[in-house]
Automatic annotation (TrEMBL):
Chain positions found as 4-aspartylphosphate: 623
Domain Response regulatory: from-to ranges: 573-688
The EC number(s) this enzyme carries: 2.7.13.3
Database matches in InterPro entries: CheY-like_superfamily, HATPase_C_sf, HATPase_dom, His_kinase_dom, HisK_dim/P_dom, HisK_dim/P_sf, Sig_transdc_His_kin-like_C, Sig_transdc_resp-reg_receiver
Domain Histidine kinase residues, every copy: 333-551
SUPFAM superfamilies per UniProt: ATPase domain of HSP90 chaperone/DNA topoisomerase II/histidine kinase, CheY-like, Homodimeric domain of signal transducing histidine kinase, Periplasmic binding protein-like II
Family matches, as PROSITE patterns: HIS_KIN (PS50109), RESPONSE_REGULATORY (PS50110)
A Pfam family recorded for this sequence: SBP_bac_3
Swiss-Prot/TrEMBL catalytic activity: ATP + protein L-histidine = ADP + protein N-phospho-L-histidine
Record PANTHER family: HYBRID SIGNAL TRANSDUCTION HISTIDINE KINASE J (PTHR45339:SF1)
UniProt keyword annotations, A-Z: Membrane, Phosphoprotein, Transmembrane, Transmembrane helix, Two-component regulatory system
Protein name stated in the entry: histidine kinase
Length: 688
């Protein structure tokens, strides 16, 4: 008995060892094979053939075949991606294996040899002849000498070209089209007499009352899913199994899909009243049932519409939040750009009151006040310019521009600023001699170059700034290149938008309101040009802008002889029309000389009265904005009785339109505020 127990125990141990060996050897292999079983994926072609298959208004695949396909794919855990295109393009893609499946393919021997057509047809179809409402076509024999339109590469074309044409004794022409919209347009324009299409065309959006079915039908056919030859036949069999199951159950989703597309929500059913109350009751129940079915479909459509609307609102909300964020940053920057120079102006003016300042410190403080004032003026000018752009007040006045002279002026103007930062300023003028002078708005053109050069120097700490031009494809192209900080690729388009800078951080190291490039973009557009950017972070940027070449027109107006060498060597009587006390005190201080007598007028009317009553007035400094009568009206009134006295318009307005109005009213010249002392004295010498 003891020996028997030992044998049994040994036998049990042997079984355990064998089971352990099998587990260690084969289970990892089995486990691996279960894990490494990827989810099936199908790339499906989609073309425009509503209601069977099409891309809907929100850019998504839709239609009968798409819904049936997705229903089967959901049951089999098949991942689907879509590729849209024309019919012939997708047929080639299916042949080449770049897509796996193309829905809505009619059976033919050629297609059955090229593709794997599933065995169970998805739907049945036939061909119908469609015509305009007033076309008299009643039988197949009325097709004689008619022009028939079909889709290019379709079964309809094959049928008409081969079977149909060979079996009829009369002639007709066949015209092919790339898609249904093109063929429908040809039918409406009477380029074809009839359109041959499937029966599903009757349910498409193209049937609008003008186009009707003639009742002529031919060639019944079955519509299948066409798979590429490389597709696993087992997967095709799964589609057949599901289709067979769906089609054999009248209550399945298959029939709900067909009812949805062939009997869409919106149809109303008006019952006929009959004598028997029982039949009336049945009809009432039928109406209620149809109502609830239609209501469900309408809710589905409304839900889709609400989803789309919510999506639009979400995008609008995100856009508004981004706009609000940028405006907040802009206001922070603007506050900084106004308060910083004001701090320099007020602070150093206070320091200038100190009695123990030496001459070097006083000079240094005055230079800081001037630079701060210029920076503040630049910010204010940018705000004014962007407001003009918003109110569409940019007016273009074409005048001849000499490119070499202009380029040299900017080179000399910005050279000291570049030297201050120890960077090299390079100028390259490459325009042909016959294109060196062109027509453009000089004010706008100068502002574009000024902004771009200012930016280049501001954002370059070492290296160089280069600006130049060349002629290409009937365009004048100007560029400004630097070796500065560069612009990140993701912000290269955004920096041309308002309130936006390449660096949005409040701790950015460079001053600026974020308006300069948006102004430049608007100015370039006003000159019918384009602006673009090439940049690499930490290596530099190149801004290009192109404008059309306009041949210069000779200026018929001869310039008045200038005598800039004259000095104030005689007694002068000057009327200063200025209502603002501080502005008047500044002008009076400039003109405070023994040889100049200043008479002040606080309104435009007072200035006119002085000119009427007093003789010997040598010059008038006329402010535009004044009470009672403004400067433009006062100038016009003076010119009615005094055509010769020089009137220099001085104002805080800066647009070329203001200057034109002042000149048209009779002004002799124009000077903007803040008034430059040397410029004012130069004008006085010129006209006295």
């Amino acid at each position: 008995m003891r020996h028997l127990c030992l044998i049994v125990n040994n036998y049990t141990l042997v079984r355990l060892y064998i089971l352990l060996f099998l587990k260690i050897t084969f289970l990892p292999i089995l486990g691996y094979s279960q894990v490494d079983h990827p989810e099936p994926q199908l790339k499906v072609g989609v073309y425009q053939n509503p209601p069977k298959i099409f891309i809907n208004e929100v850019g998504e695949p839709d239609g009968i075949f798409i819904e049936i396909l997705e229903l089967i794919a959901q049951k089999e855990d098949i991942s689907i991606t879509y590729q849209s295109g024309e019919w012939e393009e997708l047929i080639e893609a299916l042949s080449g294996g770049t897509i796996d499946l193309l829905p809505d393919v009619a059976y033919s021997q050629e297609r059955d040899s090229l593709f794997q057509l599933n065995s169970v047809p998805v739907m049945s179809s036939w061909l119908e002849a469609y015509a305009l409402k007033d076309t008299n076509v009643q039988s197949i024999f009325d097709l004689e000498n008619k022009r028939l339109g079909v889709l290019k590469g379709s079964v309809q074309e094959d049928f008409l070209q081969q079977s149909f044409k060979n079996n009829l004794k009369f002639k007709f022409d066949i015209l092919t089209f790339e898609d249904y919209p093109e063929s429908v347009k040809a039918l409406e324009n009477k380029q074809i007499d009839l359109l041959i299409a499937s029966r599903f065309f009757l349910f498409s959006e193209h049937i609008n009352g003008n186009i009707i079915s003639t009742g002529i039908i031919f060639r019944p056919s079955e519509l299948h899913f066409a798979f590429s030859r490389s597709t696993d036949p087992a997967l095709v069999s799964k589609f057949d199994r599901h289709l067979s199951k769906l089609k054999n159950n009248t209550g399945s989703k298959y029939y709900k899909i067909l009812r949805y597309w062939f009997d869409p929500p919106g149809k109303s059913f008006v019952p006929k009243f009959i004598l028997w109350s029982f039949v009336v009751l049945l009809l009432a129940l039928l109406i209620i049932t149809i109502y609830f079915i239609l209501l469900r479909y309408q809710i589905k459509i409304k839900t889709k519409a609400l989803w789309k609307k919510n999506r639009q609102l979400t995008l609008a909300k995100e856009k508004a939040e981004e706009s609000e964020r940028l405006k907040t940053i802009f206001l922070q920057n603007m506050s900084h750009e106004i308060r910083t120079p004001m701090n320099g102006i007020i602070g150093f003016l206070e320091l200038l009151k100190e009695p123990d300042l030496d001459s070097d410190e006083r000079k240094k403080y005055i230079e800081i006040v001037i630079k701060s004032g210029q920076r503040l003026l630049t910010t204010i000018n940018n705000i004014i310019e962007i407001s003009k752009i918003d109110s569409d007040q940019i007016s273009v006045k074409l005048t001849p521009i000499n490119a070499p002279e202009t380029m040299d002026f900017f080179y000399q103007f910005f050279k000291p600023k570049a030297r201050e930062k120890d960077i090299e300023l390079i100028m390259n003028h490459n325009l042909p001699t016959d294109k060196a002078i062109f027509m453009a708005d000089k004010f706008i053109f100068d502002n574009i170059l000024t902004n771009l050069l200012n930016n280049a120097i501001k954002f370059t700490d070492n290296g160089y700034v280069e600006f130049g031009n060349y002629f290409e494809n009937d365009k004048l192209i100007f560029y400004v290149k630097d070796s500065g900080v560069g612009v990140p690729e993701e912000r290269q388009q955004a920096i041309f938008e308002r309130f936006v800078q390449a660096n949005l951080n409040i701790t950015r190291p460079h001053e600026g309101s974020g308006l300069g490039l948006s102004i430049v973009k608007a100015y370039v557009k006003a000159l019918n040009g384009k602006i673009w950017l090439e940049s690499e972070l930490n290596k530099g940027s190149t801004f290009y802008f192109s404008i059309p070449y306009i041949k210069p027109v000779p200026n018929e107006e001869e310039e008045k002889p200038k005598n800039n060498s004259r000095v104030l060597n005689k007694k002068l009587c000057i009327v200063v029309a200025e209502d603002d006390n501080i502005s008047y005190l500044f002008i009076n201080q400039i003109l405070k000389r023994p040889e100049i007598q200043v008479i002040r007028a606080k309104t435009g009317q007072e200035c006119v009265d002085i000119l009427q009553k007093k003789s010997g007035i040598d010059l008038v400094l006329m402010d535009i904005k004044m009470p009672v009568m403004n400067g433009i009206e006062a100038t016009s009134a003076i010119r009615e009785f005094n055509k010769t006295v020089p009137i220099i318009i001085q104002t805080a307005y800066t647009s070329s339109r203001d200057k034109d109005e002042a000149m048209e009213a009779g002004g002799t010249d124009y000077i903007t505020k803040p008034i430059d002392k040397n410029r004012l004295l130069q004008l006085i010498r010129k006209y006295t």
